[in-house]
Structures
1.
Amino acid sequence: MNAHSTTSAAALHMSGVSRSFGNRPALKNVSLNVPSGAFVVLLGAAGAGKTTTLRIAAGLEDTDEGSVLLNGVDADGLQPKDRDVAMIFDNLALYPNKTGYENVSNPLKVRNVPRDAIDQRVHAVAGTLRIGHVLKRLPKTMSGGERQRVALGRALVREPKLFLLDEPLSSLDAMLRVELRTELKRLQQEHGYSFLLATPDFQEALAVADTIVMLVDGEVRQVASPQDIYDAPADRDVARFVGAPEINLIPATACATMSDRRLDLLGASFITAPGFADIDGEFEAGIRPEHIRIEHPNNSAIRAEVLDIEPLGMRSAVTLKASEIQLRATLSAAKAQAFSRGATVGVELALDRVLAFDRSTGRRID
Amino acid sequence: MSDRPLTMPLALVLALAVIVTLFPVFWIVMTAIKPPTDWNAVPAIWVPGEPTLVNFRTLFDPEALGVYGVGGVSEAATQAVFGSLLASIVATALSVGIGLAAAIAISRYSGGGRATPLVILSGRMFPPAAIAVPFVIIFSTIGLIDTYFGLIAIYIAVTLPFSTWMLKSFVDEVPKEVEEAAMIDGMTRVKAHLTVTIPLIKGGLFATTLFIFILNWSEFLFALVLSYTTIETIPVRLAKYVTATAGTLYGVQAALAVLAMIPLVIAGFLIQNHLARGMTFGAVKR
């Protein structure tokens, strides 16, 4: 939670922010930090509170509790126009009666930037986003991707202290999405922009973020670097959200024997590495699909039946059943071709990569 | 617009609708140009053999019908035309203005809570006749009877529920994020309403204005009971073209009615282009 120290230079610092709509809490005690020049991603499912967080930062929504600092200045009572932020709305919110050029130039026009300077900026941004051809057109004549990029242009045309991006790449096709997110990352790094980007797409988050803030049901569950959030998720919900195919969760038991510690799962027993030293009793073992290997049945303690093989391109996802529990494993497509549906195989687990979760709280046990 | 061809039965239904709608208009226009002998001739004269403008002249010169031996028209309609224009224009402008502010307040700020729109509409949930008499008494007491101020006040009160509800539906159609984007671009909330939202509901604003104007322009009951001698409107004047000697002056009534139609017909043509829906298309992902 307190992965970042509080510095006054942070582009955005939220602390203890709560917000309810009626009696439905949208945000519960949310604290987060966007250091100046950092790319922070708010990751969470629909309804997790991402949009509300961005709207509070922009001044479009009030807080019930907590404080919001922008560049170290208390933003309480500051109007959106005085916050020096840019925002891309989830639904884009272009001006439907204005051309692409007028949409992109509006923030500068409203702020009385001279016409020449506006023209120069708009064309620079249009070049970056490749929207030169739609500058004279109305939004209704643009494709979804063009509208998305015009909305991006309207945000990027200024150089505000903080960019708030609400699922800015969601309506683009896969190719353009990957291309534009690389472009966003490049722009952010090149200009030292501070980005707070909300997305439900963990791959996008992993690809661009310096820091990921994981929101679940209006709560910040984890603040960590992309690799850490994948390797050491704070709890079961985070582990399930980050990673595809989803992490396998298997009931397991750890107990001390005379000389060693024993780990029981999937009907097999293992003498464990010291990783499970603190656990005594039942817990939930989380095993990522890539940490399951498929072997010849004679060589493994765990046997499983192959239920399904799903090609993912370079790799294949194999659904297995062992001790009445379904498992998903990913392996190279070439290797997967050796098996067929209904075959009996042996399963090897990378025990050192197994994550342990408390059965009731879901927290990860170190 | 569908490209389906107009089939025979459809064409017949359409023709019937057009005839039913336009026949009164045709009859009024014809009557307006008939000399007094043709007004209620039996059998009916559909198109006058000798069209005349004498009925129109009578509106502004009460003696004009004298050439046909018809007298007894006491007053010109000038004051009624002036009164209708004044009351309708001022009341419409204020009703639409206040209604627009209320519509934005309700749509964007849930102004007054969730019940507000219904409370506003409740002002129209009883027949106007039910409040006409109380208003005569109240207005007599406070000296507003027989004044344009009083008539305009009533017109605003009576049309405000319509203007508020109609405009609210148009404001609701503009995504609030478009206004918010303008605020982040650097506008105040009020400026965003004025320069972003209002241009986007232009068509609705025109339609509402025309509708409210028609209501005010054709209002009869309040104008009748709240006017004595100082103020008059066209609908009230229409009812007064009855003489002791010649009975009802149908031709003069028709002439005034034709005159009263002109501003509405012009306004109707003017706003046709603005009535197209879908002004906000392209603003948001759908």
2.
Amino acid sequence: MIEAVGLTKRYGDKTAVYNLSFQVRPGSVTGFLGPNGSGKSTTMRMILGLDNPSSGQVTIGGYPYRKLPNAPRQVGALLDAKAVHGGRHARNHLLCLAQLSGIPARRVDEVLGVVGLQDVAKKRSKGFSLGMGQRLGIAAALLGDPQVLLFDEPVNGLDPEGILWVRNLMKSLAAEGRTVFVSSHLMSEMAVTADHLIVIGRGQLLADMSVRDFISHNSADFARVRTPETEPQQREKLTAALTEAGGQVLPEQDGALRVMGLPLPRISDLAHSADVRLWELSPHQASLEEAYMRMTQGAVDYRSTIDQRAGLQQELPPGAMPPPQMPVPGQGQPGWYAPPPPQQGGQPFAMPQAQPPAGPPAGPYGAPAGPGAGEPNPYAQPAGAAPAAAPAQPSSAAPDLTKPEEAR
Amino acid sequence: MSTPQHQMQQQAAPAPNWQGTPGTSYTSPIPITRTHLGHALASEWTKIKSVRSTMWTLGVFVLLVVGIGFLVAAQTTNEDFTDVPYTIPAFFGLILGQICLITLGVLVVSSEYGTGMIRTTFTASPQRYRVLTAKLMIFFVVAFVVSALSIGVVGLITSGMHGGSSDNEWGGTVLMGALYVSLLGVLALAVGSMLRHSAGAITTMLGVVLVPAILPAFLLMSESMRTIGEKMMEYNAPNALARIFQLDNDNGNGSSQLVLLVGVTAAAIAGAYALLEKRDV
């Protein structure tokens, strides 16, 4: 059981973690997600008593880490795969940690076997690949056979076999009743590993819910319905019928309809009773990764921009047209990953709440937005604050979250 | 210990969920040992002997002290040792060799900061003072034993080559010489713990050793600085070693210089402990 209450960490005037409160419970894998620089590792270090919080506190089993009796036997951690003295054998590295924690030396050989490094136990860790380093770090975390385990990006650098192994290891550790807290920025990995998710962005809590809830609340499921293009009146007829039945219907650019709030058989039945033929009726489920991207897009600190190559291009001959700039996914257009769920307008992402009135669509899917500066982050508002139905104005968007950051 | 338990009960109350199912708590079959300084000492001993930098710095130290000592002993005659101890050839090697011990002292702690290993160490032992204590003790014992053996070997070689020409007692110079260079290494360890940076700490220590040996040449030129210059000349590290080995036996046996070094080292260690507990790792 890890419990953080109002955890805040400032480095000078930069706030790395702000007012973070969460609980990590035993018996399940808890994923800790956030973009680069969102404060995951800082939080992990504060849990382990390595960094002192500026305010707030974090406890493990009721104790701050540095007051925990027999700490290495209760908590194991992998913080950084490269945090070993490269000149030391893998076995000696683990041995000195075991001796420090009062763990018998034969346990070292056990964990070397568990992570599959027994053949390189006498090799200096300088020559280890990143994946081998991760395995060594996991071995160090498992050394004390602890009740609470923390892993910071454990699958970085692992091969597919290793990723599968880590995934199963986490699950089996949790199944034994341990508390497993895993940070990652790989949503897809967390979707299959974790039972519970804690999502942070810019050091603040964005979501704290089970994976199942996260999926149901944050992925925008819809059905795509296409009527014969030759008969536009059929399309209007169907739209009216579906709206009457309680569905939300939005036209797509290519003439199809995006229908939300109605199951597929019901759409088919309605179309049949309205005497409309369908050319397409297909289910679409936004991936969890997409939902995560959408949730964190306003909290990304390090965003790539389009490479302008300013001044480096050759002069075009007079009269020639410059080649059209095709937008690249994810570059310089924050809206790319985030087809805003049309029925939600500017709805904050996190917790389930009352449906807002359906606003106008925030924009066509994937349309190039501005260069990103000042883009509102509709998801970063504190959960529960009722947003404006219309998309938030860029200047007034999300004042609460960004305040501690803007102050720097 | 009553306060944390009280806290635990307080915090458990609003969150009954996690304790709800009694089967969800894991207990390790490995018996739990209450850790103490002995564990940290064993760990630091494993650490110091399992890296090559230890072998390199100590190897070079032994080579310098014994090698230069042997060369000096070979170049001297029996008459040179009539009123000086047989260990005096070790002095010339120690002047260079002390830098090896300083380097090792710094590396013992700063290499952990440089690699990030310190986070793993302090996770395994949240009692940071215990780790630093173990480092100081293990390093001091290793440095003292190695330097005492090296100086002793030089004394034996010299007395073997120029035997019988003097009945000067030289056992004390072995211990005091070894103590002086080992304390310099311990000072380096404390500085390394405060600065956390190998190059920075080694440079600082070289300054501590060399600047008081060089600066008096300039300070003595000025009338107002003369006393400071003279003190520096008297207490700098090479001169202290010269006193210990009775290079000029009119000026005592270097015990006041040794006392000064003990004081400086104690202050640095106190600073290292104070910073260790407060700072983020």
